[in-house]
UniProtKB/TrEMBL annotation:
<protein>
    <recommendedName>
        <fullName>Anti-sigma factor</fullName>
    </recommendedName>
</protein>
<feature type="region of interest" description="Disordered">
    <location>
        <begin position="115"/>
        <end position="154"/>
    </location>
</feature>
């Protein structure tokens, strides 16, 4: 049998092992002097330490100790630290960057849509033409296109 761990020995001391394991450990403890010493050392952990120190606790000068504790000034709350300012500056830079990016993208979108049909319709407050109303508008556009090409030729 390999050497038992301290956990197994403590379980043996606390009567938490089965009958078979318990008998194996008892035999190993009886045969091995070092294992017997380890068990004795571990069994001392169950001594009544609290009772040993009760008398000392009763002799403690509680009033004098409490007076000393009361005399200690409370620590001042620190003001805003340098770390707080760094974090605030980083957050402000980040927020400013996001706002600048959104403003630039919005400006770019309005600039690129300035010459498109929806932008012209919005500027002239006309509704897009569809269906049977489209024929006169298409004819007008064709005439304008012919006039522009004739103007370019001359």
């Amino acid at each position: 049998m390999k050497a038992p761990s301290d956990e197994q020995l403590v379980a043996w001391l606390d009567n938490e092992l089965g009958a078979e394991q318990r008998s194996l450990l008892e035999k190993a403890i009886a045969d091995d002097a070092l294992l017997n010493l380890r068990v004795q050392w571990l069994s001392r952990a169950n001594l009544p330490y609290q009772n040993a120190y009760d008398e000392l606790a009763q002799q403690a000068p509680l009033e004098r100790l409490q007076a000393r504790l009361d005399a200690i000034p409370s620590p001042e709350q620190p003001g805003l630290s340098r770390r707080w300012f760094i974090v605030a500056a980083a957050a402000a830079l980040f927020a400013g960057g996001v706002l600048a990016d959104r403003a630039f993208l919005g400006w770019q979108a309005t600039r690129s849509n300035h010459g498109s049909l929806p932008a012209r319709n919005a500027a002239t407050k006309r509704q897009p033409i569809s269906g049977h109303d489209a024929a006169p508008e298409l004819e007008r556009k064709a005439k304008l296109s012919k006039a522009a090409s004739a103007h370019e030729r001359s």
